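Pilot study result, target chain (432 residues):
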Amino acid sequence: MNLLSHRSLLLLLAILPGPLLCADPLPEPLTLEAALSSADNPAHFELLDIDQRLQALRAELGITSSYQDFRLDLTGRIREVGLSDEAPDDDDSGDSAASLILSKPIYDFGLQDSRESRIGLQLEALALQKRLLIEQRRLDILEKYLAVLDADNQFLSENEALAIGFIRYDNAREDQELGATAEIEVLRLQSAYETIRRKRNLAEQQQRLQRSILAEAMGYPGQLASNLEIPVINNTRALPDDYEALVTRALQTSLEALVALANTRAAHAAIQIAEAANGPTLDLELEVSTYERETRTRDDWRAGLYIEIPLYRGSSAATVNRATAHYRRSLAQQQQLQSHLRVEVLKLWQQLQQLQLEIEGRSIEQDYRDRYLDRSRAEYELEFKSDLGDSLVLYSRSNRDRLHALYAFETAYQRLAALVGEEYLQALTPPQ
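Predicted structure:
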């Protein structure tokens, strides 16, 4: 690499935003609150893109608003003319002139208002889209944070099973050496152990994979959190019985619905712009001039109102038709979104009901496994025949399954709350 290339690289690194190059280290242990706080990081590439689009629209609005401002122009010429033989002897051949022209649009029959309205609606839609993006990123980070915890629980369960499987296999080998166990039994236990070992290795890989996915979602590539704080999940939140109320709320207040509505209104404003562009315009103009050579036809100042009435423009009808097509497409997309929201609310509502039943069942199973494990330990200590190893494995798996259901419940609940509003969801929750 030559010197110029080095300098170019250093310049590029210097102008890049700092958070894109390096990020503060992740806290240890990583909490769910800290993870969610990264959702609105302004250095995230998706948020950067929206912010730049917002700036461009604000600049466009400023340009559009300036169309109604006063316009001041200075024109001039330096010119020499050849005088005719009939010109007076004292007539100068210089014909230079300068003019100061002040003009201002007076009325455009709604064109300017339609332009500003369209851009304003586009700004509204983009601002709502930014909020929606942050909300979607929070939900995505939540899901991936819980996926890491789920992977950790899976690893603990498989690691427990691996330890028990190895002890059984190792004890069988010792018994075989003493002639107390057949070779086929040792091979059976070895095969079972190797199967568990593969599952445990896969669970360990999932731990790293899910941490990498979480780091990317948070905007901390390469920073893998070693310890994650386990959040307290309230699965006792009752769900409203009125599904139709939830749907109505989602169609009215969800950010997705609001973005679609703003885009549709902006598309309708584009039709008004296309129609108003074919209308007349009224302008005021004031001109003050000075001339090197005075004539009877040259005035020191002029003032007037000018009206322009388009009679025919070949592209006008096509422009209106194009804007109308975009508006109808926007309406179709809005209807498609409404259909999606109705189905999504129903799916989440039913999923939460099912998960509450599953959590209840898993909790009962967990209590049973806990009591059964206590009995197995007591029998083991009393040197009775005991299935302590199996009890430990089953207890671990039961706890894993219960936590998995809890994490799924929290994810579904937060997604439903994002569609209808958490405060509204709690307000509809019947008393327990």
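One observation from the pilot: The longest helix spans residues 111-177. A full batch analysis is planned for the follow-on phase.
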